[in-house]
Model the fold of this input.
Amino acid sequence: MDRRTAPEHRPGAGVGMPSEFTEPAERRARAPFEFVTASYLIRIRPERARTLGELARHLRSCSEASIFYHTFQSLESHHYSAFSSDFAQWVMAACNEAELAERLGSIDLREVVSLSALRAMLVGAVESHLGANPAAADRPGFEPFHFCEALEMAVPIGERAWTLGELAAGIRRMSRHTLHHHFINSRLRLHLVTNDFSFWIEHNLDAPELARRIDHIDFYSTTLDGVRQEILRLLGRPDPR
Done:
């Protein structure tokens, strides 16, 4: 997985905000923010889970890319669903195990910094539930769970931002896939429980408070377009649309 931590990708923060930010809104960063274009190639894996017991077994051995796809990546398509995790969705819809679905769905990806730790959380939740409800282990679901994984293709587009205004302009234009890459997937890539924008703003524009506010945007309670609008608002450049 791409773990860009080179200095020129790192944040530092500026303004574009109300009076509490006293630095010039167009302060030039020490190093530019590098925009990429991101897309994903989805591959169906051979693992299938027809029962919760099989789900637990495959969770222990499936690829980290599959864990990533069904949790971090699924956030992009489940904003209007009860659960953002594919695992939680299947447990509820196919197995009718509401308690386990709640436990899986309550894992907060904003606090996850490694896929091995996330795997342990998922396996622990399923095995704990089956320990208390052994009869559920072999009860077939209404449909099988198909494990998938995504190959991320992130290509620099040669566009850079040196100021908050230029950053806002790039965020306004970028696709949802690219926004997902920079704002959500980056939390694992950076291993710092943050996003690319906040990382750059803090380390290259020296505005940790602005970086913190952007990082605290709740991507569970809104769409990616809603995330985009909130970032632009915090940058002091709301989209007029």
Q: What stands out?
A: DSSP finds ten helices and two strands in the chain.
